[in-house]
Amino acid sequence: MLVQRRALVALRAHSSRAYATASPSISVFAQDAGQPTSSITVLVKAGSRYEPEGYAGIAHVLKNFSFKSSKERSALRTIREAELYGGMLSATLTREYLAITADFLRGDEGFFLPLLASSVVSPKLISHELTELVWPNVMVDSQSAVTSGEYTALELAHAVAFRSGLGHALLNPPHAHAPAIEAVKDYASKAFTQSNLAVIGSGLSQSKLESLASQHFAGLPSGSSLSSPAAKYFGGSTVSHSLHPTLFIGYGFAGAPSAGLATLAAHLATKPRLPWSDGLSPLSTLPSSVHAESILLPYSDATLFGVLVSAKDSAGLKQGGEAVVKALKEVAAGGIKEDLVGRAKARAKFASAVVEEGKAGVIAKGAAQLEGKTWNSLVDEVEKLDVKALGKFTSDLLKTKPTVVALGDINTLPYPDELGL
Amino acid sequence: MLKGPLGFSFAKQIVSNRTLYRWTKPIASWYVDLCGYRKLGLRYDDLSASSFPCPSILAISRLPNDEAYNRAWRHRVGMHQSILHQDLPKAQWLKPEDDVRYLTPLIQEVEAEDAERRELDRIEVTRKK
């Protein structure tokens, strides 16, 4: 224990990190662990959560407009030059953030930061790029996403759990029509402002990133940060037709992920840490045709926790769902052994420490800085948790309204009361 | 490319020189009138359909919806008058001020994109010293 904690403290001390704000009001965060590659992410609060009414799916379109023509360089030139530098450009969309990222060899930040900045400061957002380049990719994203039962189940789970805001669909539905270019421009002009984005770097120093950011993001209007009503958990259940039988049983919280939730997710996690082993999760004893995995999705002011079950048919889903409910009730009754709790805690701490160590951790810290919050590692909090506290936490959790989403053959899908909830 | 809107032309130099412009303008107007396309209700850019294969087809697809609709409408009217071997009534002739180059900028844009692609395909990269 002590060794782990010392190592984490050492990591925190070694990496040069600083909370600071560059010229006018751009939030800049950098952490350098001495790795041979660097990465810069422009994190914009422009996820689907902030979509204005009547513009569902506009965030998804804006994501695919990343790295298209800007006043400085055309889309083709951006790609070709990045290839010459051996860099990797990517844009990812979550419910809260649009992350425009460049990964490159150390020392090339002088090329890649202006490239990222031009995508945000002076995007052209041309109508024919929307029809020729962006919209076809949007449709490919949507069509490949809906083939996954997991994606559809989580979309419905968010909608049921949080309704508006966090409940907004992440991507366009496959039958959507392209929006007008004016709508994209309007959303971009609201999202791309100094107070609405953070520049986050790993593998380069804070001062270097600050000086580059203040130089290249100066042309951005100061504007105001996009806002969305504070997340509120509702819960409920829904069924939907699907070719991929999937069941989601979960609970939402308005608030940051707690130690109890992380430990519970680790307790139910089935993915083995050793090859050829089933692991000790209570869900590992399910037949191989029923697959269950716990998920924990943290947002800036809410958390969604749950278990996704996939099976061949509704009977399999019912079997998996009953096992999940049984496992949760067992923890709530304090009926699990000390060493299993120890295993869950160790796993939760490991997961949290791995995140803290990597690029995802740097981005999480930068995002917390953008939101004006402090980032807390769960490692120490999980350490303090014992069997009794976990049991109390779980029994309180079970008293709230669950979120249950069942996909598959509607005629036979299980409902929450049939699963014992 | 010698003909058409992207062809070899002194227009820029002539327009920038006031005296030269004053001298050539009447001849130009007379020539355009003689071409007769305005009497069929067409614009100059309506004529450049198939003479420039690739860039102009892409450019036409990039026209805003209303522009594309109006272009098709003018083509139909022009074709109909051509079949009748008649010009439109004089009131419906295209006025010189309406003869806007709505397609040429788009064709130029497509050509610039092609040129950039060719340039990048042939680029020689040298390491920074």
UniProtKB/TrEMBL annotation, chain A:
Keyword match Lyase: no
Gene Ontology molecular function: metal ion binding
Key words of the record: Electron transport, Membrane, Mitochondrion, Mitochondrion inner membrane, Respiratory chain, Transit peptide, Transport
Family the UniProt entry places it in: Belongs to the peptidase M16 family. UQCRC2/QCR2 subfamily.
Domain of life: Eukaryota
Membrane-topology annotation of the record: Peripheral membrane protein
Annotated signal peptide: none
Residue span(s) of domain Peptidase M16 N-terminal: 30-173
Listed GO CC annotations: mitochondrial inner membrane
The protein, known as: Cytochrome b-c1 complex subunit 2, mitochondrial
Pfam family membership, one: Peptidase_M16
Species annotation: Calocera cornea HHB12733
Keyword Metal-binding set for record: no
Subcellular location: Mitochondrion inner membrane
From TrEMBL, chain B:
Major localization class: mitochondrion
Keyword terms, alphabetized: Electron transport, Membrane, Mitochondrion, Mitochondrion inner membrane, Respiratory chain, Transport
Pfam families cross-referenced by the UniProt entry: UCR_14kD
Subcellular location: Mitochondrion inner membrane
Record-level GO cellular component terms: mitochondrial inner membrane; respiratory chain complex III
InterPro entries the record matches: QCR7, QCR7_sf
GO terms, biological process: mitochondrial electron transport, ubiquinol to cytochrome c
Membrane-topology descriptor: Peripheral membrane protein
PANTHER family the UniProt entry points to: CYTOCHROME B-C1 COMPLEX SUBUNIT 7, UBIQUINOL-CYTOCHROME C REDUCTASE COMPLEX 14 KD PROTEIN
Entry similarity comment: Belongs to the UQCRB/QCR7 family.
Protein name: Complex III subunit 7
Native organism: Calocera cornea HHB12733
Lineage: Eukaryota, Fungi, Dikarya, Basidiomycota, Agaricomycotina
